[in-house]
Amino acid sequence: MNRLRLTQQRVSVCLGIVLSAYFIYVSLGIHSNNNHWINRLDYLFFDARLNLSLALDEISLAAPLTASQSASQAALQTAPIIILDIDEKSLANEGRWPWSRHKLAQLLSVVTEAGALVVVFDVVFSEPERNPVSEVNQHLADHNINWEIPRRWHDIANGDRVFADHMRDKDVVLGYFFQQQASLQIGQLANPVYALSPQQLKQLVTIERAGFTANLASLQQSASAAGFVSTFTDVDGVIRKSPLLIRHQNDLYPSLALAAMMQYLLVDTIELETESLGQVDVITAINVAGKRILTDANGRVVIPYKGQSNNFAYLSATDVLKQQIDFSVLSGAIVLVGTSAIGLADLKTTPVGTQYPGVEVHATLLQALLNENFPYRPEWEAGLTLCVLLLLGVVLSLLLPRLGPVTALMVSVLSLCAAVLGNVYLWHQQGLDLPIASVVLLISALTLLNLAYGYVQESKSKRLLTDMFHQYVPKAHIDRMVADPSAYQFTGESKELTVLFADIRNFTTISEGLTAEALKALLNQYFTPITKIIFDHDGTIDKYVGDMVMAFWGAPLNDEQHAQNAVLAALAMQKETQLLSDKFVAMGLPAIHIGIGLNSGLMNVGDMGSSYRRAYTVIGDAVNLGSRLESITKYYGANILVGENTASQCEAIAFAFVDCIQVKGKDQPIAVYQPLGLKADMSQQQLAELTDFAHAYDLYCQQRWDDALRYLIALKNTSLNPIYDLYIDRIKDLRLQQLPANWNGVFRHSSK
Predict the structure, then answer these.
(1) 397-425 confidence digits (pLDDT tens)
(2) By residue range, what is the domain housing residue 285?
């Protein structure tokens, strides 16, 4: 018996050593691969550590400060950083974005007159503003009216000129984007902060971009400086680090935060510290006016988030314009102009929140730059990690097999706690960003190996499956998944799916007229039957966000008919919504209408999130396109819009072609369709209308305006479809323009 036990211990020790050697081997090769699964796990530990550190900071702030702590905080004080927020309130009071350059000039004047030292725009002014006087003159000329508005009126109405004039002699920093495409070079870049030497051009490794979207030349020439506002996410879509410099051609250009810092400190150059790694050099630190900023090999710094949003003083732009604030707070301040409005799409996913204003990311970086307060990963980190893995691997491999289950578990837990707490301490107290995932995984793996808990894994996975999916999929789905776990993927995977976005139109107006209880009751009455329809058509609920519901088909269980099931669900949702609307009106409640967007394509689906909150969800470009299709339903007067990939997979459903569009952020055009119902239920008149509109669109693409108009006017007289009026108005506008030779009818949505 003793010999058998000794043999088992030796086998466990050998397996433990092999497992430890594997983790050491893997750790040697992950530093250059950000997509490695251990690095992905480290992102989760990073987020948890950051949030834990912030919680510790809150506890320490609640306690009285010692003399040394007070002195340390005093040393970190800099000029106040104020965020001038173009928020929902500002958009409601001042009008939708973009605002006129006259209004921005007024805003700039008010802020600088109040004593702001530097004004930083997290906004890119890449397109000239329309001059209404010029447009009127052109209109008069087009109609052969021999009268012209005086030139001085043109100058007065020139918003770009007025804005540029207001920026002169002021410390204004503008933002711009770097792009991957070399052919995309819009506007004028500001001067670089560092010119690379011939040797550096060959050897220095940095983040490089060939194209840019910058500001108008007149505006950039009037501004004091500019910095890029481009953000860089990790592979999980979260912003944890930010480059301070990006190489373009032969020069280095600063981030918006770095440019703002330099403007505040009145410096226009930087110094680089580099280190040779074989045949290349990497940046290790940036020196600005005596401040030394440690970076990683790509010139990036860890963003030291201070918690969820609103860690800086926010001033609503409309309150500033109406002078309804205490302007003393602006004296000597650095003001960042940005937005927290949801509709302006500058909300980022960060370790501390998924709706984090982009302008606050820049503010956080700026404050850390001024205070030299960045966590950093030292050059000896890799050696330390390998030594820790070797020590833990040998000790635990030799020790755990000799201990009983309870004792072994306690030793493993203590080892794990020591590693994690030590890592948190070095982060919180010393500012060291050390990876921990490989250490945690090694301890956990050795523990599981020696405790042999494999027999409980099956029941645990079934329970986890039920807990995770019961809110998202029908119970019948869960039963099938539990019975056949191989039929689904719990972890992330990439597959062809169909996503649906449904949103109540004019919900803000509806909600303003209802009490909180009435609004809740209305939404509950709406979501319950809508959810049932999705479940009845084998869909999976992704999330509810306010009045919006997001669902997808094809996961967690495979569905060969995911596109058709999704479209049929959308049609049923519209019918149900009409019944609900009639019911609401009879009850004295507002009528409701919904817009639905669907798209099919390759998506990433799986259990995603942080160690604090996770969800089974889908992400990817195809998902974003589905959301944008929903947002443009109102523009086309359509209840449902689907992408061409979705329409092509629904043989039993009839679709009406709507438009060929290019949405914002996409280079490739897509065809958009409106589902009408089952082909078997279509009348001859409906089929003839589809044929006539298809012919009218062909004539439209050929720029045969008169022929296209004849078809469209005839269709308008026999149908209530608002799409015909849209094309009629579009043709009237296009025929007055000088279209490029390669114009093919594609309509570009610049705001969606």
Answers:
(1) 778 777 767 788 888 889 889 988 888 88
(2) 81-128+135-371
